[in-house]
Amino acid sequence: MHKILRTFAFLLLSVLACSPAFGQKIFDGEDGYRLWLKYDLLSDQQSIKTYRKQISSIYVAGDSATTTVIRDELSHALSGLLGKQPKFVEAVGKHALVVGTPSSSADIRNADLSELKGLGKEGFVIKSLELSGKPVTLIAANTDVGALYGTFHLLRLIQTEQPLRELEIVEKPKIDVRVLNHWDDMDRHVERGFAGESIWDWHKLPDYTYPRYYDYARANASIGINGTVLNNVNANAITLTPHYLDKVEALADLFRPYGIKVYLSIKFSSPQLIGGLKTSDPLDPTVKQWWKDKVEEIYARIPDFGGFLVKANSEGQPGPGDFGRTHAEGANLLADALAPHGGVVMWRAFVYANEKNEERSKQAYSEFKPLDGKFHDNVLIQVKNGPIDFQPREPFSPLFGATPKTPMMMEFQITMEYLGFSTHLVYLGTMYEEALQSDTYAKGKGSTVAKVVDGSLFNNHISGIAGVSNIGTDRNWTGHIILQSNWYVFGRLAWDHELTTADIADEWVRMTLSNDEKVVSTVTDMMMRSREITVNYMTPLGLHHIMGVGHHYGPGPWVKDLGREDWTSVYYHKAGKDGIGFDRSPTGVNSVEQYFSPLKEEYAKAETTPEELLLWFHHLPWDYTVKSTGRDLWDELVHRYYQGAADVTAMHNQWQSLQDELDPLQYHQVDMALTIQEKEARWWRDACVTYFQTFSQRPLPKGFEKPEKTLKEYMDMRFPYAPGQG
Amino acid sequence: MHKILRTFAFLLLSVLACSPAFGQKIFDGEDGYRLWLKYDLLSDQQSIKTYRKQISSIYVAGDSATTTVIRDELSHALSGLLGKQPKFVEAVGKHALVVGTPSSSADIRNADLSELKGLGKEGFVIKSLELSGKPVTLIAANTDVGALYGTFHLLRLIQTEQPLRELEIVEKPKIDVRVLNHWDDMDRHVERGFAGESIWDWHKLPDYTYPRYYDYARANASIGINGTVLNNVNANAITLTPHYLDKVEALADLFRPYGIKVYLSIKFSSPQLIGGLKTSDPLDPTVKQWWKDKVEEIYARIPDFGGFLVKANSEGQPGPGDFGRTHAEGANLLADALAPHGGVVMWRAFVYANEKNEERSKQAYSEFKPLDGKFHDNVLIQVKNGPIDFQPREPFSPLFGATPKTPMMMEFQITMEYLGFSTHLVYLGTMYEEALQSDTYAKGKGSTVAKVVDGSLFNNHISGIAGVSNIGTDRNWTGHIILQSNWYVFGRLAWDHELTTADIADEWVRMTLSNDEKVVSTVTDMMMRSREITVNYMTPLGLHHIMGVGHHYGPGPWVKDLGREDWTSVYYHKAGKDGIGFDRSPTGVNSVEQYFSPLKEEYAKAETTPEELLLWFHHLPWDYTVKSTGRDLWDELVHRYYQGAADVTAMHNQWQSLQDELDPLQYHQVDMALTIQEKEARWWRDACVTYFQTFSQRPLPKGFEKPEKTLKEYMDMRFPYAPGQG
Asked: What is the residue range of the signal peptide feature (chains A, B) (predicted)?
């Protein structure tokens, strides 16, 4: 007995010895690698007891690569969360967790669950019921991948300490194609990446794989992301050569058990670049044959290859327009090659061609609306949420609702190209929600962007949503722990856009940081307010595109005299003695005409335009009275800038109030980032206010601290090595 | 009691739950981040018991940042290794581990240890003795940093399960300046880096620091490395601007407690590039003033700044030669600015100027020997181990021993630019040892390179050694776990070049992999043979510089027709119908004349030239009889290539025989890399043999498998995205 006690004491101390509290520097603790799948021992002893009773054994039916993934995840997760892995069994037992499909399990087949009927290939059911006479918790689906999604859902319930009694969960994703887009280059540079370099080590593939590839797959499967576009939309044709297809194939094989398909961005001129053809004209028979052969080559290696993502005739990329052909002709060329194999084309609508004189925000609509109905069945048009380029705030793109016959796929940006790189705490869930819940009025009230995107508004046969990834080789994947939540919320909304982003934030905080109520309420509050805070210190009241030139780092409202007018900042804010803002109303370039009524009319007049979009749609004098506060425009602008910067300090104080409740390394990482964010928010504030003041010629309101530097000093700052440059 | 038992059982299971054996995929296990400082529980229970008795408490005297580092390391290490951290106490106790200096501890002061007298600022003593009447293990030094070095030495003894009884260890580094050189650019690209990107996140410094910075410092302190040159020798002047000095300062502050000084590579034209001066002429008074001011600016921030590393008038870098001045004048300009602050100049001798017609391997000697004695006191000349460029095998540089009045500093390459990037298992200890133990005969027999470098041969007042780092952001730091050993052996040899690299390999294996005797003997055997194996499949018999052009990836003996002859491969092997090899003997370009007798005479004739350098010094016919085997040259060449490739397969088998003894993730990582190495060794073999065969016009010996591809296929391979390109 004495000896047993001594041994246990030894082990107890071993456990304690590993804890960061035991005399180690602040560099120990949760480094963020485990994302929201930490699976640490739950803090509530009662919960642990209850869960252990409810899951006294695990029966995973079937014998595929995916069922192995399910078993591994349950083992890993439950041994961590509950301190003890329930035993794996080979049959349904009392209080078992049962996972399977009608084809892998006779018990499930015989249960003949009606819920399964409408669930397709990815949906799942989680039920507390009797199976073969025994009370179990059942995760059932039509496929093993559906069962995997159900498994992660169940684990989320446990991670967030929710009850497992009387479960009746039926889930089915609302959108079909739910993909990450990696703007990763072959040299491992990530365009607009701020979290290290590309996680794909092309040089060492296919023979060398990293744990990170597996953990990437797990993380994505846990939020229902079912595809990944591996390479930059500014594509490199080399990716389609055999040497690189070997590497792509290795990744596809690795991801397949997790329900993740691999896609590639392609360069439209590939037939010429790597095929030795004289043209890439979509109507040329040799070009058609080349793509047919190339696609067959791919599918011989990767039978479930997802398809192609295409950026064409945009920012210098080649495309069908180079041959006098339309976007539809270009897309259909690829679509026809992919169709026999079940692949899709995601054709980007991010265009603002040189030849037209239209205001930039109008061009995508102008170019694509006339093509509605001309795309073949396996083509989706992929358009950014707003009509310019991922600004802190934009109205939704007028293309949403404008193409009843063509699936319109949402492209969100998860990486923070215009929102502070990886040192600003910004939860993008509120931005995504704002975009998805916008009413297009395409078919009257309630024609939300979400219903366009999920295909239900126009009864499209396929739907999609893409997120430009914020993932890199940084240990914590995203450069900032809180920014992991943007990857998370993208996945959760892609699965079900009716979830509220407040609820999703709550989930994420519980899983990633702590179930402690003080932590949950404080951090979710920070997250829910963060986007508006950043809008305020960067681009309040509908301002947009006033960042540093090229690298997009820091403020640059003075940027002018570039190759194209619509690459400058002055083009977008049009600040002058007379006022500020872009007149997109009928008295200006009339971009509002692309929206349906009543938006078209609401946006037409400043008085009925939502304040947050005021300067997006209107050029207003400095003394324009802002309705909500009664201040004149100049004062309101200044107030917003100063409020934003002050709110970052407040957010930092909120975070620091949690020091005792948080893991020390998670705490420290975010604390350091908030220090930077405070400095940069003040920098944005001071640079923009000082610059705009040269036009307004009005003073700062009383009591507002003077800027730290002169305008010239702000304008002279150079950052040649800011990360993520295009 | 029952409850206690249950709690302990719970905790026991928690400990077990964290172990990778508990149902998790192969992506769990030791990822290599902890390097040779894993500090896992020792496997030998008896050792643990004994160490715990011998170290029943710890008394670290003093109250500096360094003593905090010492306490943290001891806490971290001993709680891991022994399962229990001995308690920290505030006075000498029986069986205590006592760490301190005469100034921090009266007990140590009163012990009046004579050993401390000659130990300078970095040496240390470890003694089992009675201190103030109590038996202790004492680590004493003249400074806290010396005590830190002693602490790591003691920990190494425990990690390698060596006895702590009757210790009488006196250590003092033989070389003063022991630095890593990072060829890291400001955009985080690492020139010749194959382990991810630069670990310095310049964009987020100074406010954001990573655990990796601290762990870098710990790892270097553990092997006595006392300085780091942060940036590429192809320098960027921006590093000297205030914005970047903020960041450099943050790193210097972070490293200081670990005894690590920060140095910078500088661009000689900085006065013009960032100073706005019209010239960078070292004799110009405004230039002198500019450097004086700039150095003062640096020392105001970093009082113990190490100094500058300079690549000048080499491969396009600016230098004093641009103004008609000598290397000495250039170096002295900087030296004089640094001298008042205690800084040094490390001036690189890697030159092969365009204007001269001399054979490349002669140029450094020609340019620098005449300048001997002309450099000011705080200048070291830094020269690569061999006279060309870090080839798998080179003779030592004739500059070693040629400059009695000027300290000659060794530059080794740790990163594997010419030795397989980060997928070939090559222990460079044997290469370093070969270089250091080479006899220059500068002052007769026994005038080893080591004695030149450590300053003892010529009684220089300062000495140095540099290693071009193989570190990057890869989780395992070096891209391949075994390649961590090269960082390790560099440090150990820099501290004491009289250690054998076999002993160092033994240390490293025990600390990093396992103390299991099968593992130790097998892996050290692999390591000790690995360099020669790689020489055989890449560049046997003294061949050199026949790699792929630009990226240096894979074989490229056919490379010709470049801007400079001495950038090609054909220049170095000179293969023709008549034979192969570079005649550097008196019948050729007579590079041998730069060596002292009797080397000069030995290298002059093929019969007395060591076989491993045969084709370095001689051009020989294909039927030349190789003495050691009696084969003719062609057959011997082919045999070496095939033997090398076969030996990689044998090495892989050796590794696979250890699967049950090794951590699964360490095992798996190296297993994957060995798969790649086998393929690449065969590729080198086949490409080189096929190519040289076009000249020898002789068949392969019987039984040797035919090459996989044709020569044309080998020559047509392109790797535009091979990592680490310059």
From this structure: 1-23
pLDDT digits (tens, 9 = 90+) for B328-348: 999 999 999 999 999 999 999
The one catalytic residue in A389, A394, A506, A635 is: A389
Residues in chain A within 8 Å Cβ distance of B79: 17, 22-23
Residue spans of alpha helices (H) in B174-304: 211-222, 242-255, 270-273, 285-301
In this prediction, residue B698 carries a pLDDT of 97
What CA–CA distance (Å, rounded) separates B122 from B176? Answer: 9
In CATH, the number for domain A536-582+619-715 is: 3.90.1330.10
In this prediction, residue A305 carries a pLDDT of: 98
Nearest to B376 by CA among B320, B329, B307: B329
Q: What is the mean pLDDT of chain A?
A: 95
How many inter-chain contacts (A to B, CB under 8 Å) are there?
A: 148
Q: Where are the beta strands (DSSP E) in B82-195?
A: 87-88, 96-100, 124-131, 134-141, 168-171, 177-181
Locus of tokens 């580094």: B173
ipTM: 0.94
Distance from CA of B140 to the nearest CA of A (A): 23
- Return the CATH number of A177-387+466-472+480-508, one of 3.20.20.80, 2.30.180.10, 2.60.120.260, 2.60.40.10: 3.20.20.80
* Bridge-based pairing state of the strands A408-413 and A464-468: parallel
Q: Which residues contact A262 (CB under 8 A, 6 or more apart)?
A: A227, A228, A230, A248, A251, A252, A255, A302, A305, A306
CA atoms within 13 A on the CB side of A648: 32
pLDDT digits (tens, 9 = 90+) for A333-368: 999 999 999 999 999 999 887 567 899 999 999 999
Taking CA atoms, what residue in B is nearest to A216?
B27
Nearest by CB to A722, from B28, B203, B210: name it: B203
A84: nearest CB among B17, B475, B665: B17
For the segment A66-74, the average pLDDT, to the nearest whole number, is 97
Percentage of chain B exceeding pLDDT 90: 94
Q: Domain ranges in chain B? A: 45-171, 177-387+466-472+480-508, 536-582+619-715
Would you say how long chain B is, in residues?
A: 726
CB within 8 Å of A503: residues ≥ 6 apart: none
CB-nearest to B13 from A28, A84, A202 is: A84
Q: Is the pLDDT of residue B322 over 80?
A: yes
Note whether B216 and B175 are within 8 A (CB). no
Mean pLDDT across A707-720? 97
A45-171 in CATH: which number? Answer: 3.30.379.10
In chain A, residues with a C-beta closer than 8 Å to the C-beta of B209 are 672
Decide if B10 and A672 are in contact by the 8 Å CB cutoff: no
Closest-CA residue of A relative to B725 is A187
- Residues from chain A contacting residue B8 (CB–CB below 8 Å): 5, 8-9, 11-12
B27, A211: Cβ pair inside 8 Å? yes
Annotation marks residue B44 as catalytic: no
Q: What is the mean pLDDT of chain B?
A: 95
The minimal CB distance from A11 to the residues B5, B12, B214 is found for B12
Reply yes or no on whether the pLDDT at B20 is more than 60: no
Q: Which DSSP helix (H) or strand (E) runs through B159?
A: helix B144-159
Q: Nearest C-alpha of chain A: how many angstroms from B229?
A: 19
Helix-strand-coil split of chain B, %, nearest 5:
45, 10, 45
Q: What is the pLDDT of residues A420-452, one digit of tens each?
A: 999 999 999 999 999 999 999 999 999 999 999
